[in-house]
Amino acid sequence: MTTAASRGLDPEVYRGDFPILSQGVRDGRPLVYLDNAATTQRPRQVIQAMVDTYEHHYANVHRGIHWLAERTTELYEAAREKVRQFINAPAGEQIVFTSGTTGAINLVARSWGDANVRAGDEILVTEMEHHSNLVPWHQLAERTGAVVRHLPLTEDGRLDLAPFDALLSRRTRLVAVTAVSNVLGTINPVEEIIRRAHDVGAVVLVDGAQSVPHLPTDVAAMDVDFLAFSGHKMLGPSGVGVLYGKRDLLEAMPPFLGGGSMIRRVTLEGFDPGDVPARFEAGTPAIVPAIGLGAAIDYLAAIPADAIHEHERRLVERAHEALASVEGLRIIGPPPEDKAGIVTFTLGRIHPHDIAQLLDRHNIAVRAGHHCAMPLHRRYRLSATTRASFYFYNTPAEVDALAGALDQVRQVFQRRK
Ligand code: C6P
User: Ligand 1 site: residues with CB under 6 angstroms?
Assistant: First the structure.
């Protein structure tokens, strides 16, 4: 059977929609944007949706009686519905707009965590988590006396599930795991993790920052309790993200931030919280970014998610092959078939910041550093790495440009020796 994925995706069909990809020329070199795990670029349709809102449909939401406020509220709520459909959530009430993945995870740690975690309870994370999925749990442990434990990594960049059963117990209140590593690209077996965690009564939070933009996501099929992700990593603007939660969990959670919109009634003596999701959206929300995220989802939903994944996998395969010919280059992480569109590497003893700076002279944008994953780097006895990360608009020619430029970087440093 021919599927959308097997037919392949032609990035040229989409590149024209992204003004920055054609306007980012420097010294005659076109921009090769390979920093998509940090943030993606936006197509004209998303930028225009936000301009249109400011020009024609802008007022505050859930407050005004005037028609303009009603129109903006409709657009804001339509964006929530688009998110719901995109991840197959049962109801719009289960979609909470946050400031991003970080905001979503902190909301769970503060609200669900403070209400449910006690001294001696355990929170299980993994050695490959982004700091956003580690620090909030350390903070929760500091507040409550709970203990943070972790699943280790294998040498080739996968989760080591061997000690999982021994680590899981009735004391485990929460398992917090990323669906895709932002450094290694590893795609984790989250459905299996969720199933096994549920067997001991633990709640599971999946960090979807690097998976929702790149892989098909179905929260109902996953049976996940909480899913967090960011708009700016999936063609949307920064400043908006999403927390999906199971309805019974969200409804039992106390509000975290207090203020306008999150209440049913306020007196001088106290307040009654509003229903979900308003209970968790105190104050004026990121109105235009949320509408922009809705437009980003319209754009993404028109491209089969499995075709995006397959295209990125082919780019990663090509990168693994091409980069292997660069002397001294070592890729950190599993083979292409187990990864999303991320290739992280070291090149001899050249500092990753120097590599990124020299690649920048070729107008190739990558990220260098610890990528907000210090424990992961420590695991591989590294302080920093260089990372190229792809999206559906990247081309095989860009991968080749990266490999060619890296070989020149190597030669520059060899000459300096
Ligand atoms: N990773 C990267 O270059 P925010 O900043 O809240 O939108 O997303 C945080 C976050 C959480 N989890 C994972 C797996 C992530 O990759 C990120 C963001 C970027 O890798 C910026 S540090």
Answer: 37-38, 100-102, 130, 132-133, 178, 182, 207, 209-210, 230, 367, 371-372
* Radius of gyration for the chain, computed over Cα atoms and rounded to the nearest angstrom: 22
Residues 91 and 72 both lie in one domain: yes
Report pLDDT digits (tens) over 5-53.
556 899 999 999 999 998 877 888 899 999 999 999 999 999 999 999 9
Q: Are residues 319 and 265 in the same domain?
A: no
Residue 5, pLDDT score: 56
Determine phi and psi for 266, rounding to 5 degrees. Answer: -130, 135
Q: pTM for this structure?
A: 0.97
Q: Please tell me the total count of domains within the chain.
A: 2
For residue 404, pLDDT beyond 60: yes
Using CA atoms, how far apart are residues 336 and 331, in angstroms rounded to an integer?
11
Residue 1 alpha carbon to ligand 1 centre in Å: 36
**Domain-ending residue, one of 247, 274, 301:** 301
- Residue 275 sits in a domain of what CATH number? 3.40.640.10
Q: What is the mean pLDDT of residues 380-391?
A: 98
Residue that finishes a domain, picked among 301, 324, 348: 301
Q: Which residues fall within 8 angstroms of residue 208, CB to CB, at 6 or more apart? A: 101, 179, 217, 227, 228, 229
Residue located nearest, by CA, to atom 18 of ligand 1: 38
Residue identifier of the C-alpha nearest atom 17 of ligand 1: 209
Burial of 56 per CB tally in 10 Å (0-12, 13-18, 19+): exposed
Which residue has the CA at smallest separation from atom 1 of ligand 1?
38
- pLDDT tens for residues 272-295? 999 999 999 999 999 999 999 999
| Contact criterion met (CB below 8 Å) for 256 and 111 | yes
Atom 21 of ligand 1, nearest CA residue? 38
Distance between Cα 334 and ligand 1 center (Å): 20
For residue 403, what is the domain's CATH number?
Answer: 3.90.1150.10
* 344 C-alpha to ligand 1 centroid (Å): 15
Burial label, 202 (beta-carbon count in 10 A; 0-12, 13-18, 19+):
buried
Asked if residue 191 is part of any domain, the answer here is yes
Enter the tokens of residue 5: 């994925």
Please tell me the predicted confidence (pLDDT) of residue 27: 82
Instruction: Tell which one of 126, 210, 376 to mutate to probe ligand 1, the residue whose CB is within 8 A of the most ligand atoms.
Output: 210
Residue 24 lies in a domain: yes
Please indicate, yes or no, if residue 5 is contained in any of the structural domains: no
Look over the chain and give the mean of its residue pLDDT values, rounded to a whole number.
Answer: 96
Residues with catalytic function: 372
Cα 223 to middle of ligand 1, angstroms? 23
pLDDT at 414: 84
Same domain, 232 and 334: no
